[in-house]
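User: Hey, quick favor. My workstation is busy. Could you predict this chain's structure for me?
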Amino acid sequence: MKNFLLDAILFAVFLAELSFHFLPKILHEILGVIFIALIIFHVAINFRRIFSLTKKITPRKFFSLEINVALIMGAALIFVTGICMSNYLFPDAANPLLRRNMTIHQLHVSAPYVMMILIGMHLGLHWREFWQRFLNLVGLEEFYQRRKIFFKAAAVILSAIGFAGFFLNRLAARLAMKHIFATPATDLPAAIFVLLMIGGVAFFALITFFVDRKFFR
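Assistant: No problem, here it is.
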């Protein structure tokens, strides 16, 4: 249960960081430090499990290991570029040239969207485990067994919302590191923007879940 709560908090902080348009800049930096601290803690308590992926490697283990390594590298990139751009918590950590460097800025903006995809893939690979933890936590396992079709429909609808969010938030342009100040998604209320981001994670989780079931099981 503790691990599940940590994962939930980590995901919530990640969503808050993606929604930086709606937050005071200093809060964005504070949450960024918390986010990195939670990732370090998450990797530390799961280190044996991650390391076990290097033993008796199978295609599924290799795929999972690649995602884990990419997530760690993405978090490191966000942290380093965030330090360079910091105006409040670490204002003297980088020289003014780095702070104004457009490539660093674009990397810092684009990397979280790569992580959104990777988090979705990570959830998709471990969906049964995460979902079982959630059901046990909230005590809905019996209800879920009787109403599976509604939960599956909700997952498809959420993924469809996320797919629409890719266009509203110009995901392809963000991944291409184009300079974007605002999108139709960022003009929406914060709650809807967050829903679009959750849907984006759900979309890649659903795709990965089916790929895992078809090719790795």
